[in-house]
Amino acid sequence: MAFVQQRNEVKYQVDLWTDPKRVSVRCIPGPQCCISSSSINLVTEGLEFVNSNQREIMMMHNGSRNLWKKMCLKPRILYSYSTNSLSTTLLNNSLRILGPDLPEIWIPNPSSPSRPPITHRSPFIFNHQEQTAAVIDGKLMADEIRSEIANEVSRMKNEIGKVPGLAVVLVGERKDSQIYVRKKIAACEEVGIMSLMTELPKDCTEIEVLDAVSSYNVDPAVHGILVQLPLPQHMNEEKILNDVSLEKDVDGFHPVNMGNLAMTGRDPLFIPCTPKGCIELLLRSNVEIMGKKVVVIGRSNIAGLPTSLLLQRHHATVSVVHAFTKNPEKITREADIVISAAGVVNLVRGHWLKPGAIVIDVGTNPVEDPDSETGYTLTGDVCYEEAIKVASAITPVPGGVGPMTIAMLLSNTLDSAKRAYRFT
Fold first, then answer.
1. CA quadruple 214, 219, 224, 226: dihedral positive or negative?
2. Active site annotation includes 251
3. pLDDT tens digits, residue range 173-195?
4. In this structure, are residues 340 and 102 in contact, taking their beta carbons and an 8 Å threshold?
5. pLDDT at 366 over 60
């Protein structure tokens, strides 16, 4: 958030939202708008705001003007008031230090080859004459971990008469979220973990979600709380996730857990499930991480960011590629290990990879498929058909990171129960 001022003595509050449809420029804090119909230009740290006769503003990042044009942003002026100063002033210095909060919108590189058609195939069956990469079987590894967890849960039940408990809060009727939750509940039943679920309609209030979280926070039989994302747009996701008890944050998204993950010498109570699964895949595949060049594609709070932090704890040399990175292909091609968590179908092509690289594909992108029971097929960020001819090892989608993520959720829930019951 920044405050800027211009010659007609109107002061503006500039809000940068991650949702491109909600970018706004607000005059503060009076009830009326006093912008004239003539064009007004406001310039502040790296951002340009142009006011049109219709009182609509196009926002452009100075280094990425074409990106903002393609996004067609039209934030609204809401209200204004006058001040006495005539100079442009940045009152909030933290914006200058922290940088603007810009949406992560990937735009395909027009110079890249056209994407191959998505074909129906088993991730475990190939033409061996063409395949060069070994397949990292995430499903097999996840099954081994689940077996280990089931044994521990059984031992806990026999020795102290207690079992771990996981509570899930599901808001709305998104089919993909419902499928993911069903898989997690089924996984709990398989290993002996008790599961509880609260289902709320899409139009429920934020208070109802917070009440559900609060009830699980104080329930001694619940050791892990999972709020299924994404939440409906009218809800404050950050506020709800922060309300989850730190001791039950099995997703690892609490700011304290994330902060401890980022700091040397600190141990988070929980490591986010997807990054934890990625590292398990590498370790169980005997892939050396220390000293290796690793590129993480994507920087979301759920996957990309914590993955890069976790890799640094393993003493890898980590580069993060995101939507504003110049020459991402060149940077990625230098990596010994590539972990893609951008959420873009076939973003990573064969020519992005160094021969012999290890590829972990976090992407689970639903692609419309009328022949599928679910109506869609899951496809990764990596163009699999090209990557298997270049990489030395690769995870398939599905059957790679996905099963490991669920296994790590069960593992975190077990750890939480052990901590609560002081069971060793």
1. negative
2. yes
3. 988 788 889 999 999 999 999 99
4. no
5. yes
Helices (H) and strands (E) in the chain, counts: 12, 17
Active-site pick, 11, 13, 162, 228: 228
Q: For 245-258, write each residue's pLDDT tens digit.
A: 999 999 999 999 99
3-7 long-range contacts (CB < 8 A, ≥24 apart) are: 3/28, 3/89, 3/90, 3/91, 3/92, 4/42, 4/43, 4/44, 4/88, 4/89, 4/90, 5/83, 5/85, 5/86, 5/87, 5/88, 5/89, 6/40, 6/41, 6/42, 6/88, 7/86
Yes or no: say if 423 and 152 are a contact pair by the CB < 8 Å rule. no
CA 332-116-114 angle, 5° bins: 70
Distance CA 133, CA 250 (A): 33
Is the pLDDT assigned to residue 340 strictly greater than 50? yes
Angle between helical axes of 175-191 and 401-421 (0-180°, round to 10): 50
Contact (Cβ atoms closer than 8 angstroms) between residue 107 and residue 344: no
pLDDT of 98 higher than 50: yes
Tokens of 99: 């940088």
Catalytic, 32? Answer: no
* Catalytic status, residue 15: no
SS3 content of the chain, % helix, strand, coil (to 5): 35, 20, 45
- Residue of 162, 184, 276, 292 marked catalytic: 184
Give me the pLDDT at residue 47, please.
37
For tokens 């993060």, name the residue: 320
Q: Point out the catalytic residue in the list 137, 249, 251, 381.
A: 251
Written in H, E and C, the secondary structure of 74-120 is CCEECCCCECCCCCCCCCCHHHHHHCCCCCCCCCCCCCCCCCCCCCC
- Residue 124 has which token pair? 């475990």
Binned at pLDDT 50, 70 and 90, residue 280 comes out as very high
Q: Which one, of 348, 302, 356, lies nearest residue 328 by Cα?
A: 348
CA distance 256 to 224: 16
How far apart are the C-alpha atoms of 320 and 340, rounded to whole Å? 10
- Give 340 or 26, the one with higher predicted confidence: 340
Lowest mean pLDDT among 56-70, 129-143, 144-158, 359-373: 56-70
Q: Which two tokens stand for residue 57?
A: 């503003």
Most confident of 98-112, 141-155, 164-178: 141-155
Which region holds residue 55: left if phi is over 0, alpha if psi is between -120 and 50, else beta? Answer: left
